[in-house]
Amino acid sequence: MATPDGNKWHLQMVQSRYHAYNLSFEQAEAVYRFEQERDAHALSWKHFFSQWEEWDFEMATFREILKEEQLALYLSNHEVEVKAYEKELIEQDNSEMQVKQLTYTARMLAYYKDELIPGLQKKEEVRRYVSIACMGEKNKLNYLQEELKKYLPGVRKEILINHFRQYKTFRPNELKHALLRHSINDVWPDYEKFYQSMDAPTRAIADFLESKVTGYFRDIKKLLEQSIKDRQHFADSLYKEFYSNEGGWHVYRETTPEKELKTFCMSILLISTSVLYTHLNL
């Protein structure tokens, strides 16, 4: 059967990439189909292989394509490639950057636990208006807090699954870092991410509370806005301390002062029966 010129060129390229295995045209065609399937939706956030999964897929396919001598060479080369990758992961996990990230995130967590929340705790007016809001929206707030209790363990499990999927046991410090970042979410919930995870009924309740929350806190608006500014100042100073000499970029969320205030108030309400009640003695 004749091979179209376009396909023939692609197959010759496959033979060139895998020249050590001296692939026949039929084998190159099978490898080409494998590569097409492997690389489909390569930029998708939903469907993608970890390095280990990609290798497993490749090995399972090549066992069907390669002859005995070719396969023996492939397995030998594959073992070298895996060992090099494991070495790279271990080096990354013990790098100066990894240690820096751990320290940076620990400092950020300490800020929330030792400065932001206790700072709110010391303000009698905050305690008063949190109490009024909690009593005024008790049922809806309790529902949202129960949903948060379900959400946070799910996020932690997702972190664990993704970590071991990507790194197996070769990056324990990166796992510590990921769980440390999540600990901030335990102390001060990331309301925007929580909101994005909600189903329609839960989101309707959250929208209702959002429409009310700044009204409950209108008399302490300036106080809360100052707390937000203080938090941003700390975050900017900390980032500059750790990463001012680093190249590259980091991500800022686009927001408005009004949205940031509403999100800040919602985070206060979400922890009002746990952390804030403990700290504020309500």
Name the descriptors.
282 residues, elongated, 0% strand, disordered C terminus
Brief overview:
This protein has 13 helices and no strands. It has 282 residues and is an all-alpha fold.
**Low confidence ranges:** 275-282
Radius of gyration: 26 Å
Please count the helical segments: 13
Principal-axis shape: elongated
Distance between the termini: 82 Å
SS elements, strand count:
0
Order of helices and strands: HHHHHHHHHHHHH
What is the helix content?
A: over 70%
Largest sheet: none
Structural class: mainly alpha
Mean pLDDT: 90
Tell me about this structure.
This protein is an all-alpha fold. It folds into two domains: 5-91, no CATH class; 95-280, no CATH class. The chain is built from 13 helices and no strands. It has helices at residues 5-17, 25-39, 51-65, 68-93, 96-121, 124-136, 138-167, 172-187, 191-197, 200-216, 221-243, 257-270, 275-280.
